[in-house]
């Protein structure tokens, strides 16, 4: 196991009827800005509940943060916060609104061009405004981590930032708030959480016995509840388990002291930036091909994953690895996510565009061994056709 620091200051307030707790969670004298996405939080009453819980305060609102939040939109929020001396932010929404809020929180105090924050992947953030979260979509884990992913439309770039000053102060995670989700978003959430675990687990054996068992437990939970979350939208216990599994998949615990891959995510971000494919859907395309092309360096973990997560014990090693990858692909397909570039009408010519973008963004040494060169990414993309 590698040395690690584990730090996670986010308070999770989990369960039914928890939005009213905002009154105690947000400082009394806060000059507050609520950030949200399109119309969902207004339509399903979540925003009204939030307004009601904070009725004794002066509240400002900033709506319109889009899925795959854009720099172009967020910079308007930064200016608004600066000119109105807001000192506390509240994100109401899914990963996009939370990530957007993290960027705003960091950019408000930043001297110079705020896009530099993304170019430096957040290393240059010195401080950020405090913020809280009301989560409406279980998927990204953003409600309990220090990561944000922002898209620059003009540059066709989707970049991430990581910094300990952008952990939420608190996150309210009420499973009933997910009941109005379109089933496509539920499927995306299950797939994204699954892929987050795979990025931290499916590398090489690193003697993180507890981390492996945590990871396998969350993977098995997602396999158990994935289709039910889609087929029984108002089953509280299923949605509660999905919500906590998605948070646990990317709050730092399962990955502490472990080698991590993230190549599928980085290649996937280029697919979203160029072609607008939903984040989780890019992972369903890239992850099975990533495992296939890198099966030699991932051999030990692929066998362990096959046996412990899918119960694959028969056949020789090659056959067991084939089965493990096939199960992964079927898992995504059973959720309704397609797993080939051709399903999105993308072909060989598009692969070269994607490779150029990876090169332009410095994504030339990806993966747990930094050995995913542009040529290996190209092979992964060809295997995704
Ligand atoms: O915009 P509104 O109208 O609110 O609708 C949203 C949006 O269209 C809708 N929605 C959310 N909650 C709802 C709801 N509709 C009905 N009822 C509800 N309760 O769902 C749509 C998608 O929302 P979005 O926030 O974009 O989805 P998600 O949570 O999957 O976030 C995706 C973003 O997170 C990034 C992705 O790259 C992408 O930009 N990620 C963030 C990570 C992190 N911070 O750690 C890690 C991930 O790997 C990921 O990269
Ligand atoms: Zn993801």
TrEMBL record:
Domain of life: Bacteria
Residue ranges occupied by any Alcohol dehydrogenase iron-type/glycerol dehydrogenase GldA domain in the UniProt entry: 9-175
Pfam families given in the database record: ADH_Fe_C, Fe-ADH
Residue ranges annotated for the Fe-containing alcohol dehydrogenase-like C-terminal domain, each copy included: 188-356
Keywords: Oxidoreductase
InterPro entries: ADH_Fe/GldA (IPR001670), ADH_Fe_C (IPR056798), ADH_Fe_CS (IPR018211), BDH-like (IPR044731)
SUPFAM superfamilies attached to this UniProt entry: Dehydroquinate synthase-like
PANTHER family noted in UniProt: ALCOHOL DEHYDROGENASE YQHD (PTHR43633)
Protein name as it appears in the record: NADH-dependent alcohol dehydrogenase
UniProt organism field: Photorhabdus tasmaniensis
